[in-house]
Design a protein that fits this description.
Elements lengths: L2 H6 L2 E4 L2 H23 L2 E5 L6 H8 L1 H4 L7 E5 L1 E3 L9 H8 L21 H16 L11 E4 L24 E6 L4 E6 L1 H4 L4 E6 L5 H9 L16 E7 L7
Parallel strand pairs: 1-9, 2-3, 2-5, 5-8, 8-9
Antiparallel strand pairs: 4-7, 6-7
The chain binds 6-phosphogluconic acid (6PG).
The site of 6-phosphogluconic acid has 14 residues, from loops.
Length: 249
């Protein structure tokens, strides 16, 4: 891979998945330390799917977890499926099982979505209100997350911003329900205005199966994939990859 691409896109490639998730945990620790020192808290938006499971488990390991002041960590969920918390598909359940249940967070700093399997429109409205109440901003100010963790789908989606879905065009709301025709389901997702205002956006992606879409996303024409619309407008964007997914770069 050309050095210039690695530098311009801030790409880090790790030997394998274990090295990738270990490095992502180290980045979390560093960014948490900086944020807590500067602003007294570390506000995160955590992603679902399968890739981050190893990251969450690594972060929960004693020798890593002990390096984070969890009492100052705030957790939001970047996106969710419209399923009950008890579902194996639930991002909140996965993140809770792999991380939140294992570290000493203050419960009032973890913001769950109300019944994602109920009325998605209302759930999105409720969660957006929760975000407004937490960030307490005025006018058109946007919330700024310190750690916005994102994955990459094999169709180039990220969060629950899928190709052709209405939420791609959302420019004002912070969190919306999103009809995803290709899944025949409704998803709940943070929108681009909020994602792109983050201090740190971290794409965590791995696996040979996504090498082609990653190459297209990073080197192909813009505007083809939802993940290409993620821009660090007020912070830094990191691509944290393993060698398999980076093999076509
Ligand atoms: C979700 C995620 C989604 C995920 C990608 C990659 O709710 O599924 O937020 O955006 O990050 O689909 O998923 P995998 O890590 O399982 O490949």
């Amino acid at each position: 891979m050309q050095t210039s691409l690695m530098e311009t896109k801030n790409i880090s490639v790790f030997e394998n998945y274990d090295a990738l998730v270990a490095a992502t945990a180290d980045l979390f620790v560093k960014l948490a330390e900086d944020a807590i020192k500067e602003r007294g808290k570390f506000v995160t938006s955590l992603s679902g799917g399968s890739t981050p499971k190893g990251f969450y488990s690594r972060l929960a390991e004693k020798e890593i977890a002990s390096r984070v002041d969890w009492s100052k960590v705030v957790v939001f969920f970047g996106d969710e499926r419209t399923v009950p918390y008890t579902s194996a598909e639930s991002n909140q359940r996965m993140i809770t099982e792999h991380l939140l249940s294992k570290v000493a967070l203050n419960r009032e700093n973890v913001f769950a979505l109300s019944d994602p399997d109920m009325d998605p429109k209302q759930t999105a409205i409720d969660y957006e209100r929760t975000m407004h109440e937490f960030f307490r901003l005025s006018g058109d100010e946007l919330p700024q997350f310190d750690f916005m963790l994102l994955g990459l789908g094999d169709d180039g989606h990220t969060a629950s911003l899928f190709p052709g879905s209405p939420a791609l065009a959302e420019t004002r709301r912070w969190f919306v329900d999103n009809q995803v025709e290709q899944l025949n389901s409704v998803r709940l997702t943070t929108t681009y205005p909020v994602i792109n205002n983050s201090r740190n956006i971290i794409f965590l992606a791995s696996g040979k199966g996504k090498a082609g879409v990653l190459k297209d996303v990073l080197t192909g024409p813009e505007g083809k994939y939802p993940s290409q619309n993620v821009k660090a407008e007020n912070g830094k964007l990191y691509w944290y990859l393993d060698k398999d997914i980076a093999s076509e770069l």
